[in-house]
Write a structure and sequence with these properties.
Elements (H helix, E strand, L loop, with lengths): L2 H6 L3 H7 L7 H17 L8 H4 L4 H18 L5 H7 L21 H15 L4 H12 L15 H8 L1
Helix pairs in contact: 2-7, 2-8, 3-5, 3-8, 5-6
Length: 164
């Protein structure tokens, strides 16, 4: 993948996988928070789903999902500790356990997120691949963009540090 492919891609799963060292990172958690909020905002009315699926979108469960997502964001921002995050985890993760992903501690890995969210998005068509890719770019930026380096930054100290 290069800069131009990154900027046009809607393959959010591959985009996540090319990012180095993001498992269990703050940005990965915030990306999960962002798509979870997008999912809750764009979910069709319960009446559209079959009865067994509609149960996942009952109002009381949406409240629980929201509480968990809010806690995940506060944890990422350093405002909640591990114990509070675990306490805010919803009793059910919803279809494919997607609502457990933002509050996860050990499962906050790109491969597990890609599998669960990919299954959910395939089944329910929300959020769309384009929405998820847009969120990846918003949260992570473009890792392939050229870095501007001002010549005045090339001090003896900087050069010695790079050489180490």
């Amino acid at each position: 993948m290069d800069r131009h492919v990154w900027e046009k891609s809607s393959d959010w799963s591959t985009m996540l996988c090319v990012l180095p060292d993001i498992n269990r990172s703050r940005k990965l958690r915030l990306w999960c928070v962002a798509w979870a909020r997008e999912l809750m905002a764009s979910a069709p009315p319960r009446s559209v789903f079959l009865a067994d699926v509609a149960m996942w979108f009952r109002p009381e469960l949406l409240v629980e999902y929201t509480r968990g997502v809010d806690a995940a964001e506060a944890f990422a921002d350093g405002k909640l500790g591990h114990k509070q995050l675990v306490g805010a985890k919803p009793p059910t993760g919803g279809p494919w356990n997607v609502f457990h992903l933002p509050t996860g501690l050990t499962r906050l890995r790109t491969n597990e997120i890609a599998q669960a969210l990919g299954n959910f998005a395939s089944e329910f068509s929300i959020p769309t691949a384009a929405q998820l890719a847009h969120l990846v770019r918003d949260i992570f930026g473009n890792p392939f963009r050229p870095v501007a380096f001002a010549p005045e930054w090339r001090t003896d100290t900087a050069i010695r540090l790079v050489a180490q």
